[in-house]
Amino acid sequence: MMKTHKNYGKQAMRRARKMLLTLKRQARYDVISLPVLLSLLMACLITPMLYSCAKMGAPDGGWYDETPPHVVGAMPAEKSTHVSKRNIRINFNEFVKIDNPTQNVVVSPPQLEVPEIKGEGKSINVKLIDKLQPNTTYTIDFSNAISDNNEGNPLGNFTYSFSTGNHIDTLEVAGYVVQAADLEPVKGILVGLYADLSDTAFKTKPMLRVSRTDSRGHFIIRGVAPGKYRVYALQDADGDYSFKQRSEMLAFNHDIIEPSFRPDVRQDTLWRDSLHIESIAQVSYTHFLPDNICLRAFNEIVTDRHLLKSERPEPNHFTLYYTYGDSVLHNVRGLNFNTKDAFVVESSAHKDTVTYWLRDTALVNQDTLKMVVTQNISDSTGVLRQQEDTLTLLAKVPYAKRLKDKQKAFDEWKKKQDKLKKRGEPYETTMPEEPLKLEITPSGDMDPDQNISIVAKEPLKDVDTNHVRLFSHPSGDSLWYKEPYELKRISNEEFQVKAAWKPGTEYSFEADSTAFETIYGTMSGKLKQGLKVRGEDAYASLIMTISGMQGRHIIAQLLDGQSKIVKQSFTDNGQAEFYYLKPGKYFMRIIVDANNNKKWDTGNYDTNLQPEEVYYNPDEIECKAKWDLTLTWNPLARPIYQQKPEALKKQKADKEKSIQHRNVKRAQELGIQYLPK
User: Fold this and answer.
1) Which among 558, 513, 649 is positioned nearest to 184, based on CA atoms?
2) pLDDT band at 8 (very low <50, low <70, confident <90, very high)
3) Measuring CA to CA, how many Å separate 121 from each of 88, 158, 392, 572?
4) CA atoms of 523 and 230, how far apart (whole Å)
5) CA distances (Å), origin 505, targets 105, 425, 500, 627
6) Of 298, 355, 477, 509, whose CB has the highest number of CB atoms within 10 Å?
7) CA nearest 570: which of 546, 548, 540?
8) Angle between helices 2-28 and 34-54 (to 10 degrees)
9) Upstream peptide bond of 290 is cis (omega within 30 degrees of 0)
10) What is the pLDDT of residues 195-227, one digit of tens each?
């Protein structure tokens, strides 16, 4: 706009100069009188001045466009019947744009070939590649993808429909999809209906009608015909609209739904501004049912077993990684070394990761290990078959490099001792061995229900408890007392010290030098670590009565604001008890442990096994020191898609597109009243 005003000013100056020359010529021949000449001359001078003044300030561009686009026609017309063409053109009253149609636009029935959808000026063109089905209602759900080109005013939830038969199906079903493990809303998952009620339909036939969930996990399936259906959700990786890949996230239940509708009334609030309500109107509408379907999505455990990788990150061990565990330990046969009594073997909890620690330092120093591993591997049908693989594992740091680094360390030590000797100060004649480094936790304060953990980076030998002691120092007492304890091995690298820890008491954990030793002969130095158990006044307690869960195995978990498990309780009487809670704010989740294995388990479609139920208490629980809370919670009081607290949700709801109402702000800045048309 400023550029336009500048151009106008220049043009006016040029016109003024041209007019002045003309007037001079005309005055030469007495064509006009002198007064007229002077008047015209003044006009020529004033005109460019006015344009010059105009360009000093920003021009008023008028009010912003706050009107969303609207459909003015379509080919074929909206809700047309007996349609046979696969090219659709929807026309609007202004230029429009469409946001990411591949993700945001859903065509139903589902299309195996991706439709071509693009905006062209004041139109949106849709080209369906799949052959049209007879006597079928087609819906193209644009959601909020359409907006005007200039201001981005959204059209709103817009769905175009037509039929290849003689009528349009108009029923709808709606609901939510959440992750079964933590009730997190699932965004973008496919949700579909089957009129075929058999269990095999989900794995052999494409879905009949489909939708996708939004950022809240919400879905609406439109254009549904009267009848009986089953509903499924699927993270359709291969685009065939059926469950064929076991790695795909899915959700199912055996509920049969019958879509229906009824007239209903809702309240529509009209706001005068952001703070004041203009009016509340009763608005009639058609209420489609069911609108509260809830599906719990999960991933099946893929039991196919394959070797993912093998590596030797440190010279003293190598690790084999598999897609799934096996109860039968592998057989390793060395090709360039003797495997008899060569390893300390350590498996992960699921036995899908196996680590072989080399006992013999000669093997540790050997850069290359060649071996044949005999293991159970899944064939093409999923059946475990014995298979041999030849592996060559190289140490990341060659032995020569390790020797060089060791010599460098010795030279630096020798240089330091020589300097001490020259100065007449005490010095060492033998380089000491580096003692075993142990991680001992906690240090300082600890809770009464904690234990001391001792962890090394290499496998430890058994510990002689005669070289390990625990002493206590009760508050107000000057003496230290020897305390009984249990030293329990947790893994090859970890021990745990268990005792009856007394609140408000100081403890000293002590160990002689060489008490802890690795399988390579590296020994610990003398250990002494003090700690204090906090007093009971520093804690709160919580007893939660869980309604409707008596007789069911429950895992009750207290979570912090990042969903980290702070404490958990196992119960089958419907009452969860938590003691020694630090002051703070918590959330609570329960798992209905159907198989009583103390963990959450996923589902399986082929065996008709649903994932174990999970519920969240929607309320934040605040615990204060010296407080004993007794609460009651009914997990079935509200639908599970409404349970997870917003503070814990990782999938936040997208900000809905809406008209910006910029004119109100503009009117306030100008000090005038805005009266929308």
Assistant:
1) 649
2) very low
3) 15, 18, 62, 65
4) 65
5) 65, 44, 11, 21
6) 298
7) 546
8) 170
9) yes
10) 999 999 999 999 999 999 999 999 999 999 999
